[in-house]
Amino acid sequence: MLVPDPKVVRKLLTRYATLQIAQAERESAATARELADVSYTLCVMMGTTDIRDAIAKADALLTDGRAADPDEDSGLSLAV
Fold first, then answer.
1. What is the pLDDT of residues 26-54, one digit of tens each?
2. CA-to-CA distance for 57 and 66, rounded, in angstroms?
């Protein structure tokens, strides 16, 4: 099974969160399209069809990767 690059997953999660906030503050068609694209990409990378499942799997992937590097642990959840 292929495992996504944690750096790419982290960037996608950050972009997803940023777009969610932007869309909540001021709805726009362009933001909605980009949010749909990022959501789709996260789902494909994490092997799911639901963005909530993709975020949970991405969070688990990043948490597992962080366990090997205790210097990076901030104690914050990575889920959006």
1. 999 999 999 999 999 999 999 999 999 99
2. 14
Please count the residues of the chain: 80
* Helical ranges in the chain per DSSP H: 6-25, 29-46, 51-67
62 Cβ contact partners less than 8 Å away, ≥ 6 residues apart: 6, 9, 10, 13, 78
C-alpha distance from residue 9 to each of 26, 30, 47, 48, 69 (Å): 26, 22, 13, 14, 17
Quick one: pLDDT at residue 66? Answer: 61
| Helix 51-67 × helix 29-46 angle, to 10° | 60
**Distance from C-alpha of 51 to C-alpha of 36, rounded to nearest angstrom:** 10
- What predicted TM-score, i.e. pTM, was given to this entire model? 0.78
Show the tokens assigned to 68: 């090997």
